[in-house]
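Chapter review: from sequence to fold.
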Amino acid sequence: MAQALEQAEQRWPSCGLYLSAQAHLTGYYARYGFVAEGDTYLEDGIPHVDMRKPA
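The token string follows.
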């Protein structure tokens, strides 16, 4: 994840990031600065939540 975020910053500086996380992984992504937003929803039968990392 650290490498992916570093690459994203190099390619798209000053842009926020968005991902659709499996709900049980929100704590993992939060360690990298992502914040959950909105309600949990099912995707392929698995609970997910949208997460953003501000620029």
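Two observations follow directly from the output. The chain is about 25% helix and 40% strand. The chain has one domain: 2-53.
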